[in-house]
Design goal:
Aminopeptidase; 6-stranded mixed beta sheet
Amino acid sequence: MQIGLITEPYSQLRADALITYVFDAENKFDGVLGEINREMNGRLESLAASGELTGKSLETVLVHFPQGLAAQRLLLVGIGKPGKFSASDLRKIAGTALRYLKSRGAKKIVFLAREGGPEAAQAVVEGLIVADFESDKYRSDRKKQEVESVSLAGFHTGVGGDLISAVEQGRVIAESQNFARDLINEPSNRLTPRMLAARAEAMAKEAGLSVEILDERKIAELKMGALIGVAQGSVEPPRVMVLRYTPKNARPGGPVLGLVGKAVTFDTGGISLKPANNMEKMKDDMGGGATMLAAMRALAALKPSISVIAVIPSTENMPGGRAQKPGDVQVAMSGKTIEVINTDAEGRLILADGIFYARKLGCTHLIDAATLTGAIEVALANVNVGAFGTPREYLDQFLASAKAVGEKMWPMPIDDEYEEMIKSNIADIRNTGSGKGGGAITAAWFLKEFAEDTPWIHLDIAATCWIDEGRPWLAKGPTGVAIRSIIDFAMKM
């Protein structure tokens, strides 16, 4: 899909559809809407008066052969109350419009902004590209519905190069988000740890990142006992992917951001076997790893002035004659001993070695992302990502980035009282909490044991990594959540 800025009058542009947006209860049309209304002899006012055009959030009204416009159709998308509007809302507007028109055979589209500069242009581009992703790649009867081009009109032409840069930045971020979604969508027989490592290596070389793949021998040599414990039940060997971005203008002795992602390519629960119902979705348990790979892909192109290292441990979690059992004790790379209470709490085990290894490589600040706990869905449903971190100032900086890019995240507690719940009688710590509640928090506390005093953020994306029902702006399946926030945060660091 080609996306480009245009300066020609929008009314003269020949296209399958022209898109613009309407605020809730907007009955006095001005600006470009006023111009369109006059060209159409007051038809927009008539639609509003009849109640067909209300401007309620994501409402769509399609007008065929609009008078005064060269486009064959005019699509009006509701944007809700004007007081709540932000540039990030344009992602949903653009995505909703693209998916609506794509399903109706539109090939050439014009998106008309009513106002906006670079931030708005970037948001529109991100919304368009993310909305264009489909999760039905293995269907033999897949419909080939493609939008060929989108022309962006109505943006402030005075900012010139800034607009062009914003469009390109939006493309990089959205394509990286779709890169992660494609990985998360892959069935586990088509994305084993070795296959994921090969995909990561190919991406890194194409993006200009340095990459190292640790095989099972190197993992054993490094004494990553927590990762090995999870992997030993599978015939598929584990891998650890290490990707590095080092800017030319990196400040000597400056911060190094570490991105650690959980990449369990399939999770049966191990000996603590999961119920059969919905187990097929456990192919998405490598969502945290895909998130960090996508972030690295984008950062390689956007070139922040901070060094970034991604560490992505990957394995399957399978039952078998060699699988670890409840009650086993594993020795992590850090030397901490872990009593395995539940083999289905495996993500925190592989992250323990990933986090410690990132610190060994020189990371001074950490972010980990993982589809870690079902408990986070109990706490926050599938609306917010659960965000943990210390010190609080570091977490607040990250949450500011999340807000800036329109991703919903909620700060979760990590009080000292929860630490008591992961203490073991026979080892240093246990891999599940001793109480009935606070499962997402005790999991975060487990990870904190390995981050120690390093500034650290943990994102539990278990409830937000995948949606079972599509949304107007997003296909059902993997979402690519948290990638925009991580990129924004790294750029601002």
